[in-house]
Design a protein that fits this description.
Length: 193
């Protein structure tokens, strides 16, 4: 095996084409790149013709790195999430989800408690509504995390109705989320009394 000083630089690269597609300048002129949770610096107004933005400072082999990228397609902001796992001595390019003008909300109701009991226990289901319009086609399982979307970007107040195993209303929650283009965001939920 190669010694550490014989290896190349451990880095993660974010090429505009990974975000904008095979013909990047046909999609948008520039892209903004925001590293998520890593302390890396953002890159703004990166030209569609630019070489990849390379992050090599503070990159640790074996760690995953996420980036949120946005661009304006016409007059509509689109976004995507990109990811790469760093490898020792290699520059690893990110893989990106497709650009989207909409986003999603994640809900984890099985973690909410009321009187030290789960608000949405195993076997129960729930509906999610905005302005009295139910967003899900069928009631959703309380276990684990649920993703609702696509939703237009903006602030959402979500009304959650918990249904017991017989389909009767057993409780509720109020959730808040700020949806952004191309990303799934976690909702902050509180049980209703």
């Amino acid at each position: 095996p190669l010694e550490a000083d014989e290896l190349g630089v451990t880095a993660v690269s974010v090429p505009p084409a990974a975000i904008l597609g095979d013909q990047p300048c046909a999609t948008a002129a520039t892209v903004d790149i925001l590293p998520l949770g890593s302390g890396l610096l953002p890159a703004s107004a990166v030209s569609c013709e630019a070489e990849a933005v390379v992050y090599d400072e503070g990159i640790v082999a074996g760690h995953g790195y996420s980036f949120y990228a946005t661009t304006d397609v016409g007059d509509v902001t689109h976004g995507t999430t990109c990811f790469a796992t760093a490898r020792a001595g290699v520059t690893v390019p990110v893989l990106c989800d497709p650009l989207r003008s909409t986003g999603d909300v994640r809900l984890a109701l099985d973690e909410l408690l009321i009187d030290d009991e789960p608000l949405c226990p195993q076997g129960y289901r729930f509906d999610v509504a905005v302005n009295d319009v139910i967003l899900n086609a069928t009631p959703l399982a309380c276990e684990g995390q649920t993703q609702i979307g696509p939703l237009d970007p903006g602030d959402y107040a979500l009304d959650v109705t918990i249904l017991d195993t017989g389909g009767q209303v057993a409780g509720g929650a109020s959730c808040l989320a700020r949806v952004v283009a191309g990303q799934a965001v976690d909702a902050a939920c509180s049980p209703l009394p």
